[in-house]
From TrEMBL:
The chain crosses the membrane at residues 20-42, 62-78, 85-104. GO terms for cellular component: plasma membrane. It comes from Brachybacterium nesterenkovii. It comes from the Bacteria. This is Membrane protein. It is found in: Cell membrane. The lineage of its organism: Bacteria, Bacillati, Actinomycetota, Actinomycetes, Micrococcales.
Length: 135
């Protein structure tokens, strides 16, 4: 971790975007899982298979785009927080395993709060100046 102060405003803004992306990605992945179950298990052949094949062909690229946005926003948060590489890999994993993005978002929120409380921020310096002007 770097000794340079973090920008708390940028970090919180980045996390807010990541939080939304985590929820959207989690929902999109669950939809994809349901589509795949219907396509391959419920209607493997016969009536309904063609419908779920078409739905799958349409939803899969949409989900792919949502995941790519999630990855970009995860990378943005990772760079703002100046975390090490394993944390970035963990953020990416959260978006791949169904339902994990919801738990990962909560865990990441705790990590952001912990790091902002324990590491120096630019806003700490500003708050110190307001508390002790002309010191």
């Amino acid at each position: 971790m770097s000794t340079r102060p973090l920008d708390e405003v940028q970090a919180r803004t980045s996390f807010a975007r990541f939080r939304v992306a985590s929820i959207v990605e989690g929902i999109a992945l669950l939809i994809l899982v349901v589509i795949m179950i219907l396509r391959y298990l419920v209607f493997p052949d016969g009536p309904g298979h063609e419908t779920w094949s078409t739905v799958s062909e349409r939803w899969s690229p949409i989900h792919g785009l949502i995941y790519m946005i999630y990855v970009v926003l995860g990378f943005d948060l990772w760079t703002k927080m100046r975390w090490k590489l394993p944390r970035m890999l963990l953020l990416m994993l959260f978006g791949v395993v169904p339902v994990l993005s919801f738990f990962g978002e909560r865990w990441t929120h705790g990590q952001v709060e912990r790091d902002l409380a324990s590491r120096p921020t630019l806003q700490d310096e500003e708050r110190g100046e307001r508390e002790h002007p002309h010191a």
